[in-house]
Amino acid sequence: FHASAAGVDIDIWDRSRLADILDNEPYGHWLRAKYLGIAQQLLSAELLHDISRKSVDALEATLFDSPEAWVDRELDERLEAVCSRAAVSLLVMPSGSGKSTACVRLLKSRIATGGFGLWIPDRVLEQAQTLEQAIQSVLQSYCSSISPTAGSAALILGEHGGNPFLL
Known about the structure:
globular, about 170 residues, mainly alpha, 9 helices, single chain
């Protein structure tokens, strides 16, 4: 009665309903990992976002000594504009023109605003036969328990929200 008067709906869950969510839904797997210490198998948006952050941090550590020394360039703005509207963008420029820095900045910006992005190292691309396999390999390098369908799940998650999945 008091909850109703306060405009609060109460939804009581039995154990089987809770177990179903925890066992069969990606968000449930994330909850199990976070609060129960059970390795996550299904790819959730939360896990993909966490792996996205780790991936761009690894790229940044591989390429740069001091991100504080980065210089703003026109390329940063152009790349952001192109990647926000194009399904596929290739960045081809001479050495030293800021391609790597611009890509890291774009990835960091996209992830900071709730989007997804992964750095796929060249060794992974050389071994993969499909884009899904390359994504799967990167995901497994950060979460070894992830299901074999996580690569395709990542692409599906990346399609939602109006914030393109950057690779």
